[in-house]
Amino acid sequence: xxxxxxxxxxxxxxxxxxxxxxxxxxxxxxxxxxxxxxxxxxxxxxxxxxxxxxxxxxxxxxxxxxxxxxxxxxxxxxxxxxxxxxxxxxxxxxxxxxxxxxxxxxxxxxxxxxxxxxxxxxxxxxxxxxxxxxxxxxxxxxxxxxxxxxxxxxxxx
Length: 157
Known about the structure:
The chain is an alpha+beta fold. It has five helices and five strands.
């Protein structure tokens, strides 16, 4: 990955966290929040860092909701391929849910299977493939996210 590309995907960075757009899935507003340093387990964080992480996740989720109109923001952490502690923040929007239901023959009365939707979107919305109908312009979402995140993520005192 070129440094310029990584820099253009970065929406926020400080001495504790980086927040960047996913490069492997083109769903607008799909972000990765990484804890800087060598942390690999949530349970191993110092209390102050854990509090700051909670605030960072909440702030990023609020920014995603505002920028995308997401009805839900899924927050996932696997740390399997990249062992460093990081979180996927994934917007579940109306347009994405509609596309998922159409692709999987799920009806509007069916309960949403979040993990299945997440997996489907990561396979269906890849670079080089057009986004489903109704998707916002990714650059517009990135601009809105940068605006929402223009203040540093700082722990409350």
